[in-house]
C-alpha cells in the first residue's frame, strides 16, 4: 500500500515528460522483478520491501491504464470497457487465492511468486517493444536527439527539473481541489470504500458471530467475488445504455448505492441466515455497480492532461481515508459496544452518506472535459530543445510541425 500510494501521483506527474505507455512498461517491469524477489526473499524485511515495490509497479496501472482505455473505447461503450477493467480486481483476488493455495500446497509458496512473475513478464516486454500510444491531452515528448541512460539520469536529478515538477504538481492539485464535481465524486468514493474495506476485513467474523456461519470466509468471499464481477460489468453497461454523461453517472451512483445500502442494512436486521444471504447478495450487486461510473466521472470531469493525476489522487484518497482506517476503527467501536449487529449496522449506514454525496453531484453544473481539443499540454521535459520554440512555451510553429514527427494530442 505504501508503494502504491506514494508512486501513483509520481507516475501521473511523469506522464507529462515521458510517454505514458512506456511508463506502464516500466511499472510492469518493477512489478515483475519485485514479485520474483518475493519468491527469493531470504528474510522478512526483504519480502516486505519487495511487496512495497510491487505497489510501485501497480501504481503505473492505477493512474495511466484507465485514461488509455477511455481514449480507445468506442464512444457508446466507454463505461462498459472501464467496467471490464475494474472487474479484473475481484476476479484477480479470487483467482489469486485459488492459485496461491494450489501452488503452495503442491510445491512451495515461493513458486507461487515465481509463477506470477513469469506470467507477468510478457506484458512487461510488451510495454517496451510495441509502438507507444499517445494519451489524449499530451503532446509528443520524444526528444529529437536520443539521450543515453546516464544523460537521462542526470536530467532527472537536476534540481531545477525537480522544482519545476513540484510546481506543476501543485498547480494541477489546485485545479482538482477547486473542481466541485471531482471533489464530491471522490468524497462519495471515500465513504463507499470505507464500508467495503471494513466488510472485506470484518465481514466473515461478523457473519460468524451474528449468524453462526460455519464457512463464513467462503460465503462472504464467494458472494463478494460473484457480485463484484457481475455488478461491476452491469454498472458499466447500464450507464452506456443511459447515455454516458457525468449527470447520468451521478444518478446511477446515488440510486444504486442507496438501494444497495437499504438491502445490506435490511440483511443485517434479519435473523434468518438464508434471508440475510439473499439480501446481502442483492445489496452487493447494486453497490458494485458503482465501480465503473465513479471512475468515469473522475476521467471526464477534468481536462485530458489531468486524467492520470485525477485517477491517482482518487486512489490515494480512497485508501488513506477509506479502507485503510476503516477496519481498525470498526474494531475499536466493536470493542466498545461489544455487539456485532449494532456495529455492522452503524458501518453499513455510511453507504447512505456516499449516496448523499453522489446525489449532490446530480445538481452540480457538470461539463464533460474529456474532449477538450483547445487544450495544448505543455511538456516540462528538459530533454526538449526549447531554443527553437517561440516564447519557450513548448509549442512548435507550423513550419516545425511539418518537419517533425509531431502528432496532435487528439
From TrEMBL:
<feature type="transmembrane region" description="Helical">
    <location>
        <begin position="111"/>
        <end position="130"/>
    </location>
</feature>
<feature type="transmembrane region" description="Helical">
    <location>
        <begin position="218"/>
        <end position="238"/>
    </location>
</feature>
<keyword id="KW-0472">Membrane</keyword>
<feature type="transmembrane region" description="Helical">
    <location>
        <begin position="80"/>
        <end position="99"/>
    </location>
</feature>
<dbReference type="Pfam" id="PF07690">
    <property type="entry name" value="MFS_1"/>
</dbReference>
<feature type="domain" description="Major facilitator superfamily (MFS) profile">
    <location>
        <begin position="1"/>
        <end position="373"/>
    </location>
</feature>
<feature type="transmembrane region" description="Helical">
    <location>
        <begin position="250"/>
        <end position="268"/>
    </location>
</feature>
<feature type="transmembrane region" description="Helical">
    <location>
        <begin position="274"/>
        <end position="297"/>
    </location>
</feature>
<feature type="transmembrane region" description="Helical">
    <location>
        <begin position="181"/>
        <end position="202"/>
    </location>
</feature>
<feature type="transmembrane region" description="Helical">
    <location>
        <begin position="309"/>
        <end position="333"/>
    </location>
</feature>
<comment type="similarity">
    <text>Belongs to the major facilitator superfamily. Spinster (TC 2.A.1.49) family.</text>
</comment>
<dbReference type="InterPro" id="IPR020846">
    <property type="entry name" value="MFS_dom"/>
</dbReference>
<keyword id="KW-0813">Transport</keyword>
<dbReference type="InterPro" id="IPR044770">
    <property type="entry name" value="MFS_spinster-like"/>
</dbReference>
<feature type="region of interest" description="Disordered">
    <location>
        <begin position="373"/>
        <end position="410"/>
    </location>
</feature>
<keyword id="KW-0812">Transmembrane</keyword>
<dbReference type="InterPro" id="IPR011701">
    <property type="entry name" value="MFS"/>
</dbReference>
<keyword id="KW-1133">Transmembrane helix</keyword>
<feature type="transmembrane region" description="Helical">
    <location>
        <begin position="345"/>
        <end position="364"/>
    </location>
</feature>
<dbReference type="InterPro" id="IPR036259">
    <property type="entry name" value="MFS_trans_sf"/>
</dbReference>
<protein>
    <submittedName>
        <fullName>Probable sphingolipid transporter spinster homolog 2</fullName>
    </submittedName>
</protein>
<feature type="transmembrane region" description="Helical">
    <location>
        <begin position="44"/>
        <end position="68"/>
    </location>
</feature>
Amino acid at each position: 500500500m505504501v508503494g502504491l500510494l506514494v508512486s501513483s501521483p509520481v507516475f501521473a506527474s511523469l506522464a507529462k515528460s515521458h510517454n505514458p505507455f512506456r511508463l506502464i512498461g516500466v511499472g510492469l517491469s518493477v512489478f515483475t522483478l519485485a514479485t520474483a524477489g518475493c519468491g527469493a526473499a531470504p528474510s522478512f524485511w526483504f519480502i516486505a520491501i519487495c511487496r512495497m515495490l510491487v505497489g510501485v509497479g501497480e501504481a503505473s496501472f492505477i493512474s495511466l491504464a484507465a485514461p488509455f482505455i477511455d481514449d480507445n473505447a468506442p464512444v457508446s461503450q466507454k463505461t462498459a470497457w472501464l467496467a471490464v477493467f475494474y472487474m479484473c480486481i475481484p476476479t484477480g483476488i479470487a483467482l489469486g487465492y485459488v492459485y496461491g493455495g494450489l501452488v503452495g500446497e503442491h510445491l512451495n509458496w515461493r513458486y507461487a511468486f515465481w509463477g506470477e512473475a513469469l506470467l507477468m513478464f510478457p506484458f512487461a516486454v510488451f510495454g517496451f517493444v510495441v509502438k507507444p500510444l499517445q494519451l489524449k491531452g499530451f503532446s509528443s515528448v520524444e526528444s529529437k536527439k536520443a539521450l543515453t541512460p546516464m544523460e537521462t539520469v542526470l536530467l532527472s536529478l537536476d534540481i531545477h527539473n525537480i522544482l519545476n515538477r513540484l510546481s506543476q504538481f501543485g498547480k494541477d492539485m489546485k485545479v482538482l481541489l477547486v473542481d466541485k464535481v471531482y471533489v464530491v465524486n471522490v468524497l462519495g468514493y471515500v465513504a463507499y470504500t470505507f464500508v467495503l474495506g471494513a466488510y472485506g476485513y470484518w465481514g466473515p467474523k461478523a457473519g460468524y458471530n451474528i449468524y453462526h456461519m460455519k464457512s463464513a470466509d467462503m460465503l462472504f468471499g464467494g458472494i463478494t467475488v460473484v457480485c463484484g464481477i457481475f455488478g461491476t460489468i452491469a454498472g458499466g453497461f447500464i450507464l452506456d445504455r443511459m447515455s454516458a454523461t457525468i449527470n447520468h453517472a451521478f444518478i446511477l451512483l446515488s440510486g444504486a448505492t442507496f438501494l444497495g445500502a437499504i438491502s445490506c442494512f435490511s440483511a443485517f436486521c434479519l435473523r434468518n441466515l438464508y434471508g440475510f444471504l439473499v439480501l446481502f447478495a442483492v445489496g452487493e450487486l447494486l453497490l458494485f455497480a458503482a465501480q465503473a461510473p465513479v471512475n468515469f466521472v473522475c476521467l471526464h470531469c477534468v481536462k485530458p492532461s489531468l486524467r492520470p493525476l485525477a485517477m491517482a489522487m482518487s486512489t490515494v484518497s480512497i485508501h488513506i481515508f477509506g479502507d485503510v482506517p476503516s477496519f481498525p476503527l470498526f474494531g475499536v467501536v466493536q470493542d466498545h459496544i461489544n455487539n456485532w449487529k449494532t456495529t455492522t449496522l452503524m458501518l453499513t449506514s455510511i453507504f447512505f452518506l456516499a449516496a448523499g454525496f453522489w446525489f449532490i453531484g446530480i445538481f452540480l453544473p457538470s461539463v464533460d472535459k474529456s474532449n477538450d481539443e483547445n487544450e495544448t499540454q505543455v511538456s516540462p521535459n528538459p530533454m526538449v530543445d526549447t531554443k527553437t520554440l517561440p516564447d519557450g512555451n513548448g509549442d512548435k510553429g507550423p513550419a516545425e510541425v511539418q518537419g517533425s514527427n509531431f502528432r496532435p494530442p487528439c
